[in-house]
């Protein structure tokens, strides 16, 4: 393993699924090896002050982006930081905490790719882009369940924040190596919100696994639940891998084998090895199920973290 930590960025709008994905990846890699930083902790103002000033948490001026940059650089060098803590229950700041980075650092938040100095510190950059109606559903569900808001308050907040989402959050998509979009299937069944499909946009900014093995000799996909294609994203050429929620175990295992071929260490985390924790999702009524799209997304990102660790070790 390299001497310096590997830094993964996960950026997206509020309730885009950053914490869910971050925790899933930490579970795959092993919590003892992962430090998680949420950049909400770097808000410049508490909730009352933001309301008084009339600024949203999405505005760059509402966050200490310079301290985020400084802390990212320290973490990348393996140095400790004294991190502020924003408390989502009180809307105020708790005493700061001392953080010593572990082998992998996951930095998740709203504005992680806003400045070049910050962008340059990540080994892997992920952007989460669910359709806006799904994000609204997720935000209303999460903020009413866990953050003490009424549904109308959440909807009003989303409406007020939209100009900042457009100006500051969504443009950061352009800096990502991987763009993750979970989306409901067309069938509109009751299960459709849980059995989501995923679209993974793979930019050629980092070397991705060779997924062409899932194509047959004529270049067709094997089965209809997993699809690989070429496209353009923000006018740049990209590969696109789509995995449906109803993909079969054997198709998923085929993808897992592709990932493990290059990084055998990943094998222990795969569903082929009977890992039932990967891709676990808790539904709105508390039921749990295993989502193959989420599992493969977690594995692909872990693949990139392990590859980055290999490259960094070689450079030593
Ligand atoms: N892949 C997913 N599949 C199903 N539901 C999801 C998924 N990702 C997120 N959710 C739902 O959306 C809610 C919000 O997700 P999460 O807390 O991860 O977002 P976030 O981007 O970290 O938000 P914030 O920046 O506001 O803290 C979760 O509580 C969960 O109900
Ligand atoms: O978009 C958010 C990221 O989670 C929060 O809304 C932001 O952190 C502001 O917090 P609060 O809702 O407690 O005022």
UniProtKB/TrEMBL annotation:
Reactions it catalyzes: D-ribulose 5-phosphate + ATP = D-ribulose 1,5-bisphosphate + ADP + H(+)
A GO molecular function held by the record:
phosphoribulokinase activity
Name the protein family. Answer: Belongs to the phosphoribulokinase family.
EC assignment: 2.7.1.19
* Domain of life of the source: Bacteria
Pfam families tied to this protein: PRK (PF00485)
* Example GO BP: reductive pentose-phosphate cycle
Q: Which residues form the signal peptide?
A: none
| Protein's UniProt name | phosphoribulokinase
Which pathway does it take part in? Carbohydrate biosynthesis; Calvin cycle
Residue ranges annotated for the Phosphoribulokinase/uridine kinase domain, each copy included = 7-186
- Origin organism of this chain? Vasconcelosia minhoensis LEGE 07310
Q: Which InterPro entries match?
A: P-loop_NTPase (IPR027417), PRK (IPR006082), PRK/URK (IPR006083)
> Mind listing the UniProt keywords for this protein, alphabetically?
ATP-binding, Calvin cycle, Kinase, Nucleotide-binding, Photosynthesis, Transferase
């Amino acid at each position: 393993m390299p001497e310096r930590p590997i830094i993964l960025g996960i950026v997206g709008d509020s309730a885009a699924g950053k914490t869910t994905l971050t925790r899933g990846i930490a579970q795959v890699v092993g919590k003892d090896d992962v430090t998680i930083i949420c950049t909400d902790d770097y808000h410049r103002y508490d909730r009352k002050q933001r309301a008084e000033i009339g600024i949203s948490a999405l505005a760059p001026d509402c966050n200490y982006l310079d301290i985020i940059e400084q802390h990212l650089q320290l973490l990348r060098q393996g140095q400790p930081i004294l991190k502020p803590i924003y408390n989502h229950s009180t809307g105020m700041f708790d005493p700061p905490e001392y953080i010593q980075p572990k082998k992998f650092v996951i930095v998740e938040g709203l504005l992680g790719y806003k400045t070049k100095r910050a962008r340059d510190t990540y080994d892997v950059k992920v952007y989460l882009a669910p359709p806006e109606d799904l994000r609204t559903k997720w935000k209303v569900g999460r903020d009413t369940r866990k953050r003490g808001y009424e549904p109308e308050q959440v909807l009003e907040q989303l409406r007020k924040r939209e100009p900042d989402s457009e100006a500051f959050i969504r443009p950061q998509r352009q800096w990502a190596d991987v763009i993750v979009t979970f989306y409901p299937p067309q069938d509109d069944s009751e299960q459709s919100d849980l059995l989501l499909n995923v679209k993974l946009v793979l930019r050629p900014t980092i070397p991705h696994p060779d997924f062409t093995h899932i194509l047959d000799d004529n270049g067709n996909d094997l089965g209809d639940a997993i699809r690989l294609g070429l496209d353009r994203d923000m006018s740049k050429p990209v590969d696109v891998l789509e995995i449906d929620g109803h993909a079969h175990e054997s198709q998923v295992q085929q993808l897992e084998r592709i990932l493990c071929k290059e990084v055998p260490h990943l094998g222990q985390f795969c569903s082929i090895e009977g890992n039932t924790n990967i891709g676990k999702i808790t539904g709105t009524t508390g039921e749990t199920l295993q989502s193959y799209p989420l599992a493969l997304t977690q594995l692909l990102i872990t693949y990139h973290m392990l590859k980055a660790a290999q490259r960094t070790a070689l450079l030593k």
